[in-house]
Amino acid sequence: MLAVEAPEGEAxxxxxxxxxxxxxxxxxxxxxLGPMAIAPEQQDIIEVVVSLLGSxxxxxxxxxxxxxxxRRLQGAAHRAAITDEQFFEDTSHPVRQLINRVAAVRxxxxxxxxxxxxxxxxxxxxxxxxxxxxxxxxQPVFQELDQLxxxxxxxxxxxxxxxxxxxIEQQKLLKERREKAGLSPVAAPRQPxxxxxxxxxxxxxxxxxxxxxxxxxxxxxxxxTALVWIGDDFxxxxxxxxxxxxxxxxxxxxxxxNLRREVMKAVREEPVAPVERAMSEVVExxxxxxxxGAARDELTGLLTRKAFLAYLDRKLPxxxxxxxxxxxxxxxxxNLKQINDAFGLDAGDExxxxxxxxxxxxxxxxxxTVARISGGELGLFWESGGMDAALPEVQSLLEGYFAxxxxxxxxxxxxxxxxxxxxLDSSMLRPEQVLEAAVRACNEARNQGxxxxxxxxxxxxxxxQLKQVAGYVKKSVERNRLVLLLQExxxxxxxxxxxxxxxxxxxxxxxKLVPPxxxxxxxxxxxxxxxxxxxxxxxTLRWLTQHGPDGERFGQLVISISRVSLLRENLASAxxxxxxxxxxxxxxLCFSITDRDAVGxxxxxxxxxxxxxxxxxxxxxxxxxGGQGDYAHVRELAVDYVCLQRAVLEEARHNPxxxxxxxxxxxxxxxxxxxxxxxxxxxEDADDxxxxxxxxxxxxxxxxxxxxxx
Length: 710
Fold this sequence. Notes:
The protein is of the alpha/beta class. It has 29 helices and 21 strands. Strands 13-14-15-16-17-18-19-20 form an eight-stranded mixed barrel, surrounded by five helices. Strands 4-3-2-1-5 form a five-stranded antiparallel β-sheet. A five-stranded mixed β-sheet has the order 7-8-6-11-12, sandwiched between helices. A hairpin with a 6-residue loop joins β2 and β3 (237-240).
């Protein structure tokens, strides 16, 4: 199928998807089938296989000899994927088993690299011949590979055991010499380390024997190493290479410094086969491409409004320090309609594209993010510098004359603009609020004429509303006005029980319920966030105790944990203390943490999750999939559910790009082994859409029940 030339004894290079397609087409023509076009689904398969093999070749866990053999297997992988649909679905597929075994091969003691390469080339060649005849009859090749892997594992273990024994003897000898010389085994007192340096020393002390690392310091290229022994008082740390030979001995301080400089990175040795691990990376890569496509405006190439807000959501923690630095500008082309009317829509598009490029070029060397909000309106974000930095830049943009050729002889289009600016205020809890303040300022500028700039403060109405809600948060705790609300997450599949999402809100003095979303946002930024989380957990346990049959129909009860609570040192202990005082099984409870809070407090979140999981609790990552770009934290955190971000689904039913992104987020979560939820508006027939999207649970936001507890 594929003929890849390479010097004798060397592995061929990995062919690109285009090169593979060309060879397949040439092969079809050579067999008398004429210049047949490759079907789109086959082209997709070719691209996936190339990405899969490419991911394996970039995996630092694989030795060079394994990567050479995998390149030789490219033809077999493409043939299997195109002719057998089970290749991607069945983990026991013969070709996948072959690649997984080959990927595990590493340098051996009894074979030099050249002889091992030759032996692997012979085995791969035999496997390829057998695959053409009968893929199911690969057992002789598998047996020989298994024997080789077992032999290498024994040799590695023997070598590591020798390194450990030598290290123990050396430390014992050194200790005896120090004692004979009358030297104290305790090091001389040092200046207490800084808080930041102590943090890295703690990370170094937390390393465990058996962990693997990628080292990219002191060698021509990065290499794999394993920690096999730690001496008394964390000194020294001994590392070995793939053969089990000692490569380096480091002190505690050296290990901490390598971790801090990221020249030494931990590699998780999960019980996942190389092909499965690579397929996960390919799924994530394709997802990122979909997200990137949905995040960019087709006309200007700038971020879309939704992507801009998602970006701001990651950049705008509500703290006074950030509030003093961040500014949003809403910049509007004030005469786009007149341009369209006078010169046509194409000329208007060209004017908008040119104007956007002009703005982007002006901001290229500055810490400014630019997005197209809608029509002829752009959003600009300054993460630092405050109004002192933003206002002069906007003035410069508006004062500079900007004109474009109209397409008509000796006629130009003059672009006229107005701008509104808003500085972030700690009372603005969401990026949308800051953007809305800038929009209102821009509307005021429109009334003042071309080149006008209006600087807005925080919206007074919003300030008053949030201040009022913050007051309710305090009073609700002090005067016992909290109420427990339940929303049901219905399972799409009939064989799964629903989930119950429990959240707290409050009643005002007239008995009217404060909007739960607004109450939760306000509570999460006050000192009372922990009190409310604790109340929520206690009331949930009481409700289950008092209304057992009502709670039995739910698979698990989901309780939110706020950012304020995550920062408490004794969070896990406080939760466990409550669980110990009740007969409710911990496995009935699921704790929900927003994706943003988890990423911002990764160490605390991971520690909380790992502690509670040991007792049977489950976990949910809420507001997931806003285009963060790096989803490594989802694999790091042992969560069971992910709830898709509301913004991901808002326009998915009407926008193909947004739908593709929502579906990709859902598939990505499934590939990571998580069940998915989404909040959808009520009173709409979305059954077919939900099934096609592949969600596991759906939360009807229009229905919420107030629970009665004695």
